[in-house]
TrEMBL record:
Keywords on record: Hydrogen ion transport, Ion transport, Repeat, Transport
UniProt xrefs under InterPro entries: ARM-like, ARM-type_fold, Armadillo, ATPase_V1-cplx_hsu, ATPase_V1-cplx_hsu_C, ATPase_V1-cplx_hsu_C_sf
Protein name in UniProt: V-type proton ATPase subunit H
Keyword Repressor annotated: no
Subunit structure: V-ATPase is a heteromultimeric enzyme made up of two complexes: the ATP-hydrolytic V1 complex and the proton translocation V0 complex.
One Pfam family this sequence matches: V-ATPase_H_N
Amino acid sequence: MERAELTTEQVLKRDIPWETYMTTKLISGTGLQLLRRFDNRAESVRAQLLDDDGPAYVQVFVSILRDIFKEETVEYVLALIDEMLTANPKRARLFHDKSLANEDTYEPFLRLLWKGNWFIQEKSCKILALIVSARPKTQNGVVANGEASNSKTKLTTIDAVLRGLVEWLCTQLKKPYHPSRGIPTAINCLAALLKEPVVRSSFVQADGVKLLIPLICPASTQQSIQLLYETCLCVWLLSYYEPVIEYLATSRALPRLVDVVRSSTKEKVVRVVVLTFRNLLSKGTCGAQMVDLGLPQIIQSLKAQAWSDEDLLEALNQLEDGLKDNIKKLSSFDKYKQEVLLGHLDWSPMHKDPLFWRDNITCFEENDFQFIQHHPAGRVIVNDLKAKERVMKLMNHESAEVTKNALLCIQRLFLGAKYASFLQV
């Protein structure tokens, strides 16, 4: 069987020759005794043993991974650790017990990320992420492994572990070692680790953000929905980190997130994307982009749906209010005038919003009228300025968009005001 396709259940059916390892002094007599009590026992028995003597078992497992390199044995011990943490993730705290202060509990897993087959790498990544996340916190920050004052040996520091993890995760996102599980495994661990400031910094420095963008796309299968959710979770966590804002604003991140929130029916996906939008709304050009991408209309549609998550409903209301403020800013006459003078006109909200034209129509009287539509004497002024002839020349313009709008303009000029209002832009 391919090592990449091994399951934890299959690995745990093996018989490992622990006595041989004791004979060769690779494990101690105490270690052998602990393993005999633990090996091939029911989950309830193992749970009790871990409750009674958890740190001792962690020490045995870590020492085996440090000293024994036989692939089958390494896989077996990783499967044991994976099983115990899956049953109860809080057991990750056992790796930080005071009795293990002089034990380098990180190093074996960090080394196995690069040395082992896929089964070994995948388990090492998952276990290491859980252990790192469970390390004890202090008022001033985090107690890092390897900084115990009474330590006689130099232990692997938490920063080294996190940087090593980020390097491995970015490698998986670029060129996954497993065709179907490499990227999901990396994203799953990344979503857990990006709460760490040093991980955000390392990930951005490694140019990892661009590796997330292609994964932001509408999903249909359960597996792809979970990957999408965890990817969006990563982007949400990164949206709290100022150095990454500019990249998110200038990449395809926002259009892709809008596509996802427009088409997704999964509440957890919609929630994390809406929370991301709320974070980015006031940052740089993000708010203006969201308006241009049609997010206000999408938010109205989302608000009409029955969501059970109160945080999502609150975020939708806040996002709606924030987008309205952005539309007001984008619809200022001064901004429109600047666009005209610079020759950089675009179909932004100010061009599409009838309220903008009605509220600002008298401003267009400056400099012998720039453009007339809602002005009470508009038709007369347009004729006086000979605008019809100038628009007619644009009917043969090389741009189809210009030709279309020139035609609409002429139709409005020829039709009476009563009928011109029926024309659609």
